[in-house]
């Protein structure tokens, strides 16, 4: 089983959207041996942002409420995928990559922005997730 954890700051927008978009894609691809989660470096139990829910619904991914989860102990068997290079630096693991590694740019925080910004963020996440899934297939051999 491969474990992926998406990480951002608050776990109310980017990382939860990445988690749910990847789960949607894995289900479509009928891949069952990859587990996906998300956490935030400064998460404090807030609900997923309303525009994140709307963007996920628009993208055909799970859009229900969920409280944010703070990143705790690092699991050496989990691959952490961060939204920014700063997030990557803050995670002390050999198993961490960033969206900059995947896409050549970071995923900016849409928090407090309008729905169009969240949809644009989802588009970027989808592009990075596609590359991530391709890399996982290459790692497997």
Explain this structure to me?
The protein is α/β, with parallel strands linked by helices and 141 residues long. It contains 5 helices and 4 strands, in the order E-H-E-H-E-H-E-H-H. It has a 4-stranded parallel sheet. Helix 1 runs parallel beside helix 2 and helix 2 packs across helix 5 (115-140). The chain is globular and about 40 Å long. The two termini are 15 Å apart.
Q: What's the shape?
A: globular
Largest sheet data:
4 strands, parallel
Q: Helical segment tally?
A: 5
Oligomeric state as shown = single chain
Tell me the β content.
15-25%
Q: How much is the average pLDDT?
A: 97
**Low-confidence spans: pLDDT under 50, at least 5 residues?**
none
Helix percentage range: 40-55%
Helix/strand/pairing class, anyone?
A: alpha/beta
Strand order, sheet with most strands: 2-1-3-4
What gap, in angstroms, lies between the N and C termini?
15 Å
- Secondary structure tally: strands: 4
Run of helices and strands? EHEHEHEHH
Radius of gyration, rounded?
Answer: 14 Å
Descriptive terms for the model:
5 helices, 4-stranded parallel sheet, about 140 residues, alpha/beta
